[in-house]
Amino acid sequence: MPYEGAIYRPPSEGNSLILQVTVGCSHNKCTFCSMYKNKSFRIKSKKEIFDDIDTYTNNFYTKAFLADGDAMLLETSLLIEIIKRVKAKMPNITRIGIYAHANNLKTKSIEELKLLHSEGLNIIYVGIESGSDKILEKINKGITSDGMEKQLMKISESGIKLSLMIISGLGGKEFTYEHAIESAKLINKIKPKFLSLLTLMLEKETKFYDEVKNNRIKLLNPEEILVETKFFIENLKLENTIFRVNHASNYLNLEGILNKDKDRILEEINTAIKDKNYIPEYFRRL
Fold it and tell me: Are strands 42-43 and 22-23 parallel, antiparallel or unpaired?
């Protein structure tokens, strides 16, 4: 399948068919992100998408993922056609996932999301990055914490599984505790099925990089990242959220069910801090 530019997907979609239905990111203004800087955003035509799907006629895949960052901008009717065609061509596929920017969810009503769920859209991944309005404004996310809560609650009501991602260290030293507390508050309200942490990677040719180089933002070291993570987890009040810290950017891998496994996870963090047992910097990557 021909792809335009680099393709990004969540770790859990590593064995999925990646179907590029949009190119790039319509927002593309987050100060820390360089993922789609070399792409001009566009929605692929129905013919392009169907031609891509039709190149696959085998039954190797059991999961499919719709990329790039703004696939939820497609009309609901087209998304349904895509889902149906994928399932018709590859009947072994039992799960279909998609990325969404919280702002894009404004284009979908609860009724539309329920319809997408009934047709086979199983999981939506959203990078909320932080629950702090100060940080969201600073990184130019384009939406407030309250705005995200309103949109993300629609997913929960629709029956589609929700996977949320937060970026550790995004507030730097100045906002590390606010980042942890406010992010935990937002997560506690939404109660997603899945929750993951990535760790900030400093990317050249971003405004965030320039801020760091000009000493306007001071980055956290590995120990400070883990202290922030510990503080975040301590403030979570969840019931049955699957928690994963397994991205290549992280200094420490963690997993469990929150809050059931909270004490064990916190002890693993404490041990890593005490022993200074972190994943080496040269192993970290996006």
Answer: antiparallel
Do 247 and 239 meet the contact criterion of CB atoms below 8 Å apart? no
Structure tokens, 37: 């800087």
Please give the single-letter amino acid code of residue 97. Answer: G
Residue 226 region by backbone torsions, left for phi larger than 0, else alpha for psi between -120 and 50, else beta: alpha
**Tell me: the pLDDT tens digits for 88-141?**
999 999 999 999 999 889 999 999 999 999 999 999 999 999 999 999 999 999
Residues spanned by the domain of 202: 11-283
148 contacts 133 by C-beta, under 8 angstroms: no
Token couple for 176:
């590390």
- Residue 192 included in any domain: yes
pTM: 0.94
The enclosing H or E element of 242 equals strand 241-245
How many domains does the chain divide into? 1
Spatial contact of 124 and 160, defined as CB atoms under 8 Å apart: yes
CATH number for the domain including 118? 3.20.20.70
End-to-end CA separation in angstroms for the chain: 22
Q: Are strands 161-168 and 121-129 parallel, antiparallel or unpaired?
A: parallel
In a domain, 230, yes or no: yes
Host H or E run for residue 118: helix 110-119
If you ran DSSP here, which 8-state letter would residue 221 be given?
P
